[in-house]
Amino acid sequence: MNRSKQCALALAAVLALILPAGAQAAVPAGQPVDGIHCEQMEGSVLHIHQHVAIFDHGKPVTIPDDVGRPIVGQCFYWLHTHTPDGIVHVESPNYKTFTLGNLFDIWGQPLSKSNVAGAKPKPGEHVAVWVDGQSYAGNPRNIELTEHLDVTIEVGPPYAKPAPFTAWNGN
After folding, report:
1. Is 169 within the bounds of a domain?
2. For tag attachment on the chain, is the N or C end more exposed, with fewer CB atoms within 10 Å?
3. How many domains does the chain have?
4. 171 is a domain residue
5. Within-domain flag for 111
């Protein structure tokens, strides 16, 4: 048995001891998520980038580095991050439509009008979503990830129209 399989089995055993019966770890460890696989190398057929910014009552919520790059699985999901700057990498071995909901599922975080990665609006508040500077009223999970898409999610006020993201740095 190779080292990575030994580590995966050890982690599964530890999680079985500490998680309640029937509970699952929130962050995927290499198994397919929404039909998106975790492979040894990044795909090269579809290679695009997006920017996602989240604010909880005006305070930034960081999307961490290495979302979609589980240590246990030692692989790359077709949607992942490298750095905590909000840049999302879609690197797929085939052409496919990916959504913001897919990213949050791989991250292991909720995405709805009442909970965005643990940030929740207070009574009388709402979640405001901006796509390329335009207000978006639909389900944020359904936002299609296209090249250089810029998404800002504001949980609670101030609800200010975001400045366009321009720091693509070759992405």
Report:
1. no
2. N
3. 1
4. no
5. yes
Can you give the residue range of the structural domain that contains 121?
Answer: 3-155
Among 52, 67, 145, residue whose Cα is nearest residue 105: 67
- Alpha-carbon distances, residue 89 vs 47, 80, 101 (angstroms): 7, 5, 14
What pLDDT tens digit does each residue of the chain (171 aa) get?
Answer: 444 444 443 444 443 343 333 333 456 778 999 999 999 878 788 999 999 999 999 999 999 999 999 887 789 999 999 999 999 999 999 999 999 999 999 999 999 999 999 999 999 999 999 999 999 999 999 999 999 999 999 999 999 899 999 988 766
Check: CB of residue 51 under 8 Å from CB of residue 87: yes
Tokens 């504001």 locate to 154
SS (H, E, C) the chain: CCHHHHHHHHHHHHHHHHCCCCCCCCCCCCCCECCECEECCCCCCEEEEEEEEEEECCEEECCCCCCCCCCCCCCEECEECCCCCCEEEEEECCCCCCEHHHHHHHHCCCECCCCECCECCCCCCCEEEEECCEEECCCHHHCECCCCEEEEEEECCCCCCCCCCCCCCCC
